[in-house]
């Protein structure tokens, strides 16, 4: 079955084509324009999606040598995300489905991330614990099967990626700053400063806004006139250590409580090699860790196509509340 996946929930315009769990093509256009503003500007994102979506579809069909009539199902992200940005992909996908007379499957963006591991790792087994860490979400899930998931905990404030981006801004880095912080951290001493790891009441919940404020206060107090490169590296490393500790502690606790043998880390922050290595060490040899490649960690159309395929095959989309990009 060939599925077209459309992703426009934030600042990536992406068209993916898959055949079962094989990626045929996964075209991603990351909207760099937002780095001039220090974060995503919703109105600019919607316009950029509009400009890019049709050329991307043409590129995807050409590179895959696939005709529109070969597509069996069209899936598009329906939420959560920026409303104007979502509407572009959703309307494009539903319009196309009418034009070629093929089923349209609205997909929850989070489901796209949660199942993204299957596109490269067919050996992952249910049940698994999924840690979703991106710019917009940080949450832990117990995944029993496709579309049988239980949310264990969520961030109470900022997402982990958002914390990376905001601390990056404080350090004078461009948006998005996660990868650059990791690079600086690799050359810094993670034990140089002790930033706090939030102690939240929910067993599997997270909180990162206090950590971000603590870095801000630290910089205001100790570096009022600007920061030298060595201190920047040490702060990046110490900050990253605090974020990773929170993520790993909760994930390991969930693995123990639910007695799973498989863990997936998904979303943009999952590309962080320090997070991957430390988590692998903590999980030990009995538990398998699956992390998609960086292109599948970031927002992309192939993961939406795969979540759409599973929704179609299980008829989940017929009962799902996610039918359009508006809150219920
Ligand atoms: O899933 P994603 O592409 O989209 C959004 O949810 O927006 O994730 C993007 C986020 C950004 O916050 C970015 O700074 C972060 O992922 N990120 C990283 C790394 N690479 C990307 N954070 C930490 N370490 C990285 N290597």
Care to describe what's here?
The protein is an alpha/beta fold and 328 residues long. Helices cover 44% and strands 20% of the residues. It is built from eleven helices and ten strands. The strands form two sheets. Strands 3-2-1-4-5 form a five-stranded mixed β-sheet, sandwiched between helices. Strand 9, helix 8 and strand 10 form a beta-alpha-beta unit. Helix 4 packs parallel to helix 6 and helix 7 runs parallel beside helix 8. The model has no long low-confidence stretch (mean pLDDT 96). 5'-O-[(R)-(carboxyoxy)(hydroxy)phosphoryl]adenosine (KG4) binds next to helix 4 and helix 5.
Bound molecules: 5'-O-[(R)-(carboxyoxy)(hydroxy)phosphoryl]adenosine
Rg, Cα atoms, Å: 20 Å
Shape: globular
Q: Strand order within the widest sheet?
A: 3-2-1-4-5
Q: Identify low-pLDDT runs.
A: none
Helix coverage percent: 40-55%
- Based on helices, strands and strand pairing, what is the structural class? alpha/beta
Query: What oligomeric arrangement do these chains adopt?
Result: single chain
Sheet with most strands: 5 strands, mixed
Mean pLDDT: 96
Could you tell me the number of beta strands?
Answer: 10
β-strand amount:
15-25%
What pattern of helices and strands is seen along the backbone? EEEHEHEHEEEHHHHEHEHHH
């Amino acid at each position: 079955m060939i599925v077209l996946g459309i992703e426009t929930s934030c600042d990536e315009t992406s068209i993916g084509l898959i055949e079962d769990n094989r990626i045929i093509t996964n075209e991603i256009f990351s909207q760099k324009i937002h780095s001039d503003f220090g974060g995503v500007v919703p109105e600019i994102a919607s316009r950029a999606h509009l400009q890019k979506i049709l050329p991307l579809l043409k590129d995807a069909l050409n590179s895959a040598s696939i005709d529109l009539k070969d597509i069996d199902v069209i899936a598009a992200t329906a939420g959560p995300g920026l409303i104007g940005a979502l509407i572009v992909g959703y309307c494009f996908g539903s319009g196309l489905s009418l034009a070629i007379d093929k089923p349209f499957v609205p997909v929850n963006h989070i489901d796209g991330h949660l199942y993204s591991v299957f596109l490269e790792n067919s050996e992952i087994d249910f049940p698994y614990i999924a840690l979703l860490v991106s710019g917009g979400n940080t949450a832990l899930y117990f995944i029993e099967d496709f579309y049988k998931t239980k949310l264990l905990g969520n961030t109470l404030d900022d997402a982990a990626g958002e914390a990376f981006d905001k601390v990056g801004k404080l350090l004078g880095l461009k948006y998005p700053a996660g990868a650059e912080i990791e690079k600086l951290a690799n050359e810094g001493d993670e034990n140089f400063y002790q930033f706090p790891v939030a102690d939240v009441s929910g067993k599997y919940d997270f909180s990162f806004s206090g950590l971000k404020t603590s870095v801000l206060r630290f910089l205001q107090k100790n570096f009022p006139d600007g920061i030298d490169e060595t201190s920047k590296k040490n702060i990046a490393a110490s900050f990253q250590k605090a974020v990773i500790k929170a993520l790993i502690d909760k994930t390991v606790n969930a693995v123990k409580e639910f007695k799973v043998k498989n863990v997936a880390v998904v979303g943009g922050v999952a590309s962080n090699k320090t997070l991957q290595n430390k988590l692998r060490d903590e999980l030990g040899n009995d538990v398998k860790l699956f992390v998609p490649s960086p292109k599948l960690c970031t927002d992309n159309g192939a993961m939406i196509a795969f979540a759409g395929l599973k929704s179609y095959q299980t008829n989940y989309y017929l009962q799902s509340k996610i039918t359009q990009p508006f809150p219920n």
